[in-house]
Design a protein that fits this description.
By secondary structure, the protein is mainly β. It contains five helices and 32 strands. The longest helix has 18 residues. The N and C termini lie far apart (88 Å).
């Protein structure tokens, strides 16, 4: 066979490979942003003009602005889409966000899949200063259609419903091989609180999946912030995005708790830890949510892995911890005061600081160490301010 014929055959094979490659069936928005200095003054921080690494599970994209009534009637939002996908209204087209959100439809390259997103501009919302944990939705997750868990919600100062609180329930759902309800998840709403209902946090087994990955336990946890499901398996410390923007400098946090440690403490290799008793954890962090370059900074599990060294982090200004949570089966008062350096008032007023409050049934839960059955109840949490 001569070289010309061989070359022709190779060319035909290459064309065939290119022709047979299936079009992409993804239809996600990966990032969104607003360009132009003329829009910068409408935001507290220029970093808020960009939303990067948008979760594939998220269908709402929200930009936080100083004042919604002051927005111009037409704003162009730009999007990065999954390869080959298209969007309607057109990418970067002028739209009116002053009255309501704008719905965008993303279509996959193969034309077989569509996803709708709601893009909105809102003013900052802040929670109330007291949390009673009366409200929770039951949602589906994980691998099974009958896998349900609780998601706590509350109301902001204007009375609007918000998801201020997050937990690791969404990640735990993927460790469940059988259908399960909220009582089989580490973070639950429970009856018989100090007043009304309350939070129940229990350290549970992650089953065969968790054991194979040397993550045998999941502590019950609840925190102000978001849980990023994409990191749950590969980088679990990054999955906990702690904190919400805050416009006051906190002084003290109080509440009520009950706690019972589990019988046997184990490490990530499922080895017993003789002489070690599990402990609950309650702490709060007040930190700068912009780094030295002016980029958005979010506190994650890695930054608080060593609670004794949190103030070594230049982003963290103040920390509050409950020094001890002795076991008790009756509702017991706790309080914690913030210690550290004062934050500049002008930066706080512009919401350049965030507040994280974290509750966990096992203090070493982030390292996958704990005692199965350790149970912490929390209720009536209140924040007091210095100014």
């Amino acid at each position: 066979m001569n070289k010309s014929i061989i070359a022709l055959i190779l060319c035909c094979c290459l064309v065939s490979c290119i022709k047979d490659e299936a079009p992409n069936n993804e239809c996600d928005i990966e990032s969104a942003w607003i360009e132009g200095e003329e829009y910068a003054d409408f935001f507290y921080q220029t970093a808020e003009m960009r939303k990067e690494n948008i979760s594939s599970a998220e269908t709402n994209i929200t930009f936080t602005v100083r004042s919604k009534p002051m927005l111009p009637k037409q704003i162009p939002v730009n999007f990065k889409l999954t390869p080959g996908a298209t969007i309607e209204p057109a990418n970067g087209s002028m739209q009116d966000f002053t009255k309501d959100s704008v719905t965008y439809t993303v279509t996959s390259e193969d034309g077989q899949w569509k996803r709708t997103y709601k893009v909105a501009f809102t003013e900052p919302v802040l929670p109330k200063n007291k949390f009673s944990f009366e409200n929770a939705d039951t949602v589906k997750g994980g691998l099974f259609k009958d896998n349900y868990y609780h998601v706590f919600y509350d109301y902001d100062q204007s009375g609007t419903r918000q998801l201020f609180w997050a937990s690791g329930n969404a990640g735990f759902a993927y460790s469940q091989l059988d259908d399960s309800g909220p009582d089989k998840f580490p973070t639950q709403r429970a009856d018989n609180g100090y007043e009304g209902k309350c939070v129940r946090l229990e350290t549970m087994s992650t089953g065969v999946f968790g054991s194979a990955m040397h993550k045998p336990i999941a502590a019950g946890n609840l925190f102000l912030g978001k849980f990023v499901i994409e990191y749950a398996a590969s980088e679990p410390l990054k999955a906990t995005a702690f904190g919400l923007p805050w416009d006051k400098e906190p002084l003290r946090i109080t509440g009520y708790y009950k706690y019972k440690p589990g019988k046997t403490m184990i490490n990530s290799m499922e080895e017993e830890m003789p002489g070690v008793t599990d402990k609950a954890s309650v702490y709060a962090v007040f930190y700068r949510n912009l780094d030295e370059k002016g980029e958005t900074y979010t506190l994650d599990g890695a930054a608080v892995a060593d609670l004794d060294k949190m103030l070594d982090n230049p982003q963290i200004y103040k920390v509050a911890r409950v020094p001890s949570l002795p076991p008790t089966d009756t509702w017991t008062f706790f309080e914690m005061f913030f210690d550290g350096k004062d934050a500049p008032d002008d930066m706080v007023a512009k919401k350049e600081f965030s507040l994280a409050i974290v509750f966990s049934s096992s203090i070493r839960g982030a390292q996958f160490e704990g005692a199965l059955g350790s149970t912490l109840y929390i209720d009536e949490v209140e924040i007091s301010y210095e100014k």
